[in-house]
Amino acid sequence: MAQTPSRLDILSQEPYNAETVLAEHTGVITPTSAFYKRNHFPIPHLDPSTWMLTVDGEVEHSLALSYDEILSLPRRTLSATLECAGNARVSFDPPAQGEPWKYGAVSTAEWTGTPLAGVLSAAGLRDGVWEIIFEGADRGAVADRDGPIAFERSLPLERALHPDTLLVYAMNGERLSPEHGAPIRLIVPGWYGMASVKWLAHIRASSEAFRGFFQWDRYMMVDPADESRREPLAMIRVRSIFTEPVDGSSLSRGRHHLRGLAWSGSAPVERVDISTDAGESWLPAYFTSRAQPYAWRHWEYSWEPDTTGPYTLQSRATDVHGDTQPVQANWNRLGYANNAIVAVDVTVV
C-alpha cells in the first residue's frame, strides 16, 4: 500500500481497512493519503479504457456508459464528510461485532462527478420505480450466503434523484484512485459511508424493496430486545471529536487551545460546547471554518486550567435542526451509529 503509515492506523490488510490518525485532520479537507479506508472485499483494479457502467431494470432505455462518456456529462464539485457507520464501535459496552474502529473512520474530501439524476433521466425511469440499486465490482464471501456476492446497496428514488448524489471520478482535484473506488464511485452526501458504493459496475431501477446482504443483513439498527424491530441506517448522526489534545496527554500549566471537528449528515453544525469538568458545566467553543451543507467544521476552545491534576474534557455538537449528541448511544449488536459524547482524559503537570 502506498499510504504513509503514520497517517493511518491499519486494522486489517485483507480486506484493507484503516482509520485516519486524528492529528492528521488539520484542515477541512483530509489529504487523500490520510483518508480512511473501508472495504469488505479485496480491492478490484479496473481499467478505465475497458470499464463500462450498465444502467437497466425498470427503465425505458438500457445504457452502457464508458468512462469517457461519464466524464463528458455535466460536472459538479462539492465537499462532503464520509463516516463509516461503525466509527467508534470500540466504545460500546458490552463489545459489538465488527471491525474495531476507534474514532478515525471519518474523513472529508472534495468530490467531483456528475449528478446521478442526469444518467437516470437519460435511461427513462418507468412508473412505479421505488429504489435504485447499485452494484460494485468488489466481490467476496460473507456469512450465511453460498458463494461470493457483490457489494450492493440501494437508495430510495427521491435520494437517488437528489442533485447532490453524484457519480464521482475525482477526489481532492485528482483522478480517483483504486482504493477509493476508481474508475467511478457513488457519493451520497450526508449518509453514512456504506451508501457511497465504490467501483460501480451496475445500476438497476427497481419497483420492489431491495433485500441484499449489505442492505438487510448489515447496516441495520436492530433492537437488541426485539430483533424484528429494524431501522435502516441513512443520515450521519451529529457528532464531535477532539483532534488536540489526544486522550492520555500530559499538559503543562498555562493556556491551551483545544481543537476538534464537528459534523452532522442532516444539517450543518451550529454549536459546539466544551466541558473541562467531566460534563458538570459547558461553555461554547468557536468555529474556525465556515458551515457547509455536507462538510464538518473545525472548532477551538481556549482553556487555562486552574490547578494541576487530572481533567476530563468533553465536546458536544448541536446542528441547526437542534439534534445534539447523547451522553450514551443506543447499544446495538453490530455497533453502528455511536455518536455519544467522547471523553478525553488529560493530566496537567
Give a topology summary.
Elements lengths: L7 E6 L2 E5 L31 E6 L5 E4 H5 L4 E8 L22 E10 H8 L7 E10 L8 E8 H4 L5 E6 L2 E2 L9 E3 L12 E7 L6 H5 L2 E3 L7 E3 L6 E6 L5 E2 L4 E8 L5 E7 L7 E2 L1 E2 L9 E7 L5 E11 L22 E7 L1
Parallel strand pairs: 3-12, 16-23
Antiparallel strand pairs: 1-2, 3-4, 5-6, 6-9, 7-8, 7-12, 9-10, 9-11, 13-14, 15-17, 17-21, 18-19, 18-22, 20-21, 22-23
Characterize the structure shown.
- The protein is mainly beta and 349 residues long.
- It has two domains: 5-232, Oxidoreductase, molybdopterin-binding domain (Sulfite Oxidase, Chain A, domain 2, Alpha-Beta Complex); 239-348, Immunoglobulin-like (Sandwich).
- It is 6% helix and 38% strand.
- The protein is built from four helices and 23 strands.
- The strands form six sheets. Strands 4-3-12-7-8 form a five-stranded mixed β-sheet. Strands 5, 6, 9, 10 and 11 form a five-stranded antiparallel β-sheet that branches.
- The longest helix is centred in the middle third of the chain and has 8 residues, at 116-123.
- It is globular and about 70 Å long.
- The mean pLDDT is 96.
Mean pLDDT, all residues: 96
- Tell me the radius of gyration: 21 Å
CATH topology of the largest domain: Sulfite Oxidase, Chain A, domain 2
Structural class: mainly beta
Tell me roughly what share of residues is in helical segments.
under 10%
| Strand proportion | 35-45%
Which shape, going by the Cα principal axes? globular
Strand count? 23
